[in-house]
Input
Amino acid sequence: MSFPTSRLRRLRMNPTLRSMVREHQVHVSDLILPLFIVPGSRVKKPISSMPGQCNLSVDMAVEEAKRIYDLGIPATLLFAIPDYKDDTGSSSWQDNGIIQQAIRAIKEQVPGLYVITDLCFCEYTSHGHCGIVCDGVLDNDKSLEILVKQTLSHAKHGVDMVAPSGMLDGTVGAMRKGLDEAGYTNLPIMAYSAKFASGFYGPFREAVQSAPQFGDRKSYQMDPANLQEALREVELDIQEGADIVMVKPAMAFLDVLHAVKEKFQMPTAAYNVSGEYAMVKAAAEKGWIDGDRIALEILNGIKRAGADLIITYFAADFAVKAKGGYIQY
Ligand code: PBG
Output
């Protein structure tokens, strides 16, 4: 029996060597942890569908921000559950709104942590849709007007980057114009460019109480079957001035992520969403899988597919294990 001269197993025999020739590694500095801010003080209420994640009042969010910053996580993505909801989501642009308070408090007390806000209306509207609804349909251009209001309010209160997630046409262009005209030319936009209408957002909707009261989001979020359309969405966002583009969810859309990175060579983010997290946590709780090992495998896969930044609820667990760097395995 003749042997091939190349024995690929040689490089797999020793853990140090394996890590030296590893092609892709997730580093803590790739990760962004979402936080869910609620009214009140000393509130730290576990979200049952997302084990390990909590609804936090502003004071507790500051504590969590300190903890994750010390763990080496560079950035957070903030969501807010407001104290009132109405037809237009007006609580999203008030000076004393929950998100505005959170931005101010975190930037004041943990200035090194990079604060990104999710810009959408579904948490703020009584109907749970991502803007203004007319005759039962989300009105694109009217919603853009209030989205710019929301954007400028976050900018005024000191946010570092804004991330529009509503999948309205012309979002990035409208926000960029509004920001530039108000003098915020250096405030970057991370666009949820290819965001699919996905069942994987289920647990998140419990976290922020944002399920639509009628209908669904299929007239604005993308059909999960479409890749070409995703590329068109990304291309438009880049033309309109997006600084970072995003694919969301991640795991069932790694081909989209890969195609986006290959085609546009832009700083690219992936959102490892609530359902992807919840599935791992639930199966691990049952003892069916090793949750930590699988989380690492998932994050590695997202990175290998082309993500430069990964928004993930696994961030804090990962950072603890990685001790500010990579996880050694
Ligand atoms: C919209 C928004 C959603 C998520 C992030 N921003 C929900 C939706 O579009 O229905 C989902 C995030 C997750 O599931 O982790 N504001």
User: Anything to note?
Assistant: The two ends are 35 Å apart (CA to CA). Residues 25 and 304 are 8 Å apart (CA to CA).
